[in-house]
Amino acid sequence: MSTLSISLPGGIWTGDLTVTRFGYGAMQLAGPGVMGPPADHDGALAVLREAVDLGITHIDTADAYGPRVTNQLIREALHPYADSLHIVTKVGATRDEQGGWPPARRPEDLRRAVHENLENLGLETLDVVNLRLGDAQGPRPGSLAEAFETLVDLQRQGLIRHLGVSNATAEQVAEARSIAPIVCVQNMYNLAHRHDDELIDELAEQGIAYVPFFPLGGFSPLQSSALSAVAARLRATPMSVALAWLLRRSPNILLIPGTSSVAHLRENVGGAGLSLSDEDLAELDKIGR
Ligand SMILES: NC(=O)c1ccc[n+]([C@@H]2O[C@H](COP(=O)([O-])OP(=O)(O)OC[C@H]3O[C@@H](n4cnc5c(N)ncnc54)[C@H](OP(=O)(O)O)[C@@H]3O)[C@@H](O)[C@H]2O)c1
C-alpha cells in the first residue's frame, strides 16, 4: 500500500506523520442519520478491525458521529492502538435532537470537544484535529481566528499534535496557515464535485494533505454513465474507479471512504491498485467539468 509522508514545516511539534494513502472514514458506523448506535454492533467492530488488518493506518472520526458512538466503537475495537495507527478527529460541530449539525466553535465548546474526544478515544494526545467550519450545506466565509487560536493553545498544552481545517474556503485555509502550520484540509470533493481543484494543486505544492470527504458521493452515492462505462471496461466496480481516480488526481490526496460493510471495505481497498489509462482519465475528468 502506498504511503504519503507529510513533512511538518516548523511549528511547535516537528517530525513526520506517515499514513497509508488509503484510509477509512468511520462516520457510517453510527446508526441511521449518523445518530445512535449501529444496528449491528459486532459488525461495526469487525469493519474497524478489518481496516487495520488490511494495513490501513489512518482512521477519520468525530465525536459528533452518534454522537460519541463512533469514537467509542473505535476504542472498543482497536485500543490499545498500534503506534502506526493515526486517528484524525474533528471539532466545531455538535448534534441537536433533530439530528442537525449546529456549529460549536466558541472557545469553551472547542476545549470541551477536545477533552471529550480524548476520553472517548482513550488517548492522551490527539494525532490530528480538524477545525470543522461552515455548516451542513458547505463552507461559509468568515474568520476562523478565534476558534483556530483556541486549538493552537490546546496544541501548546500537548493535547493535540497536528492541526487541520475542514469544510473550509480557500481564504480560511490561508488564514489558518497564517496563524499556525496545518497538515491537512478535509473538504467535500469527488469525481462529480470539483470545486476545490485549484486548492488541491496549491496544497500539493505546499506539502499539505487534501482529504476529500464524500469521496464516493456520501449519502447520495456517485452515479454516472461515464463512470459505469469505464468501470465495465476495467471489470471493476464504479466505487473502485472513483477511488482510483482520486489517488491519481494528486499525490497529496488521502482517501477516507466510509462503509459499514466488511465486504465493501475489502472491495474498496482492492480497487485502490486499479490502474487507469489516459483514455479512462480523460473520460472520468469530463464528469465533474
Ligand atoms: N469534515 C466533514 O464535514 C465530513 C462530512 C462528511 C463525512 N466526513 C468524513 O468522510 C468520510 C467519508 O464520507 P462518507 O462515508 O459519508 O461518504 P462516502 O465515503 O462518499 O460514501 C459512503 C457510502 O458509500 C457506500 N459504499 C462504500 N463502499 C461501497 C461499495 N464498495 N459499494 C457500494 N456502496 C459503497 C457506503 O454504504 P455501505 O455502508 O453500505 O458500504 C456509504 O453509504 C466519513 O466517514 C467521515 O469520516 C467528514
Architecture overview:
- With 289 residues, the chain is an alpha/beta fold.
- It contains ten helices and nine strands.
- Strands 3-4-5-6-7-8-9 form a seven-stranded parallel sheet, covered by helices on one side.
- Strand 7, helix 5 and strand 8 form a beta-alpha-beta unit.
- Helix 1 packs across helix 2, helix 3 packs across helix 4 and helix 8 crosses helix 9.
- The N terminus is likely disordered.
- NADP nicotinamide-adenine-dinucleotide phosphate binds next to helix 9.
Top keywords for this entry?
289 residues, alpha/beta, seven-stranded parallel β-sheet, two-stranded antiparallel sheet, 10 helices, binds NADP nicotinamide-adenine-dinucleotide phosphate
Concise summary:
The chain contains 10 helices and 9 strands.
Largest sheet: 7 strands, parallel
Number of helices: 10
Q: How large is the radius of gyration? A: 18 Å
Overall average residue pLDDT: 92
SSE layout and pairing:
Layout: E1 3-7, E2 16-20, E3 24-25, H1 41-53, E4 58-60, H2 69-78, E5 86-91, H3 107-121, E6 126-132, H4 145-156, E7 160-166, H5 170-179, E8 184-186, H6 197-206, E9 209-210, H7 225-234, H8 238-249, H9 262-271, H10 278-285
Helix pairs in contact: 1-2, 3-4, 7-8, 8-9
The structure holds NADP nicotinamide-adenine-dinucleotide phosphate.
